[in-house]
């Protein structure tokens, strides 16, 4: 970007240069209200801004350095409402000087090189969105949080946060997107989460969470309805225009960004934890879910038949648990499934017949005792794998075989027990022949005597 453009004496009301290939450094933005420089190639430290600026979007560039100058050493936060600096090269700790940012309600610092803990002053902001995903931050979340009652999106995924999942999350009654994925959280899932009636996307995957799956999940109203009224997730207003959120979600094993359809997506991912117990049948009340992932836990018991009520389900992953019993025959009603995995459990019986379930590869069913298409293993008329049904007769046959084997072994050992010493030891062999000769002579004398 030419320096003369930024040094023009005229002050801009708004500046939007997003989605270009502009490059270079920017030291100062003489813009009164809003700036959008996203998706360019700008480098260097973050620019200073005019004190009345309300919206600053610098996403997807190569800005580097610290947040300190922008956050602490200027009056830029006095009126700023929206601050997006995600997908840059910002490093260091988040400074603890957010007290004068009283109007800020959208903060996105995701996908940088930030480290350290979340500063106390940041928790005191009344935010609608807080996105700190994909950094190297750590520490525990505070046990209480009074502010941000209107929080809609809370994303701390892909960091090193630890401790319990805080119960105060259940007090954020407007929360629609909660992602704590890929951290070191432990303890149980707090039942207060069940109070989040607007929650559409819950991602607690890849942590150390233990305990059981709460039965009260059936109270998550937004997941229990099939009527989606908004394509977008609304976050507030700026210049009388609506602001809608974007979010990165992991569905069907793939991470994608959702924006214009985010309001239509409902998902729950509790995979790769240490959850125990059975899958509660109440989970089947979440008929609006499009994606459900409970894989890589320690879940036991049968797959609840109630899951078949979730007829809009597109992705279901229950793999790598300790589930037993059959795949419920009613799963044939899941006509929208395009991702399905129950591999590496203790499931038995015949795979239900449906257009969808037979369309998946064998990998979806490996590590079980299942039979029927798409597997090559056939079933008996009772739905039992043929190799299992023949297991009893094969055992009986093995007993008969062992009988013959034992007879042969006895003969061989007896034979060689007598013959081998005679063959290899000369003194034994001579003694044996002399004994036979002596016995032969006696028999001959006895026979001759009897004949006379």
Structure overview:
- The protein has helices at 3-6, 68-72, 120-123, 386-389, 391-424, 426-451, and strands spanning 12-16, 23-25, 28-29, 31-36, 41-44, 48-49, 55-57, 62-65, 82-84, 89-93, 106-108, 113-116, 129-131, 136-140, 153-155, 160-164, 177-179, 184-186, 201-203, 210-211, 234-238, 241-244, 247-251, 254-258, 267-269, 274-275, 291-293, 300-302, 315-317, 322-325, 339-341, 346-350, 369-371.
- By secondary structure, it is α/β, with parallel strands linked by helices.
- The chain has 2 domains: 3-315, Leucine-rich repeat, LRR (right-handed beta-alpha superhelix) (Alpha-Beta Horseshoe), CATH 3.80.10.10; 391-451, no CATH class.
- The strands form 7 sheets. Strands 1-4-7-9-11-13-15-17-19-25-27-29-31 form a 13-stranded parallel sheet, with no helix packed on it. An 8-stranded parallel sheet has the order 2-5-8-10-12-14-16-18, with no helix packed on it.
- A hairpin with a 2-residue loop joins strand 21 and strand 22.
- Helix 5 (391-424) crosses helix 6 (426-451).
- The longest helix is centred in the last third of the chain and has 34 residues, at 391-424.
- It starts with a helix and ends with a helix.
- Residues 392-400 have low confidence and may be disordered.
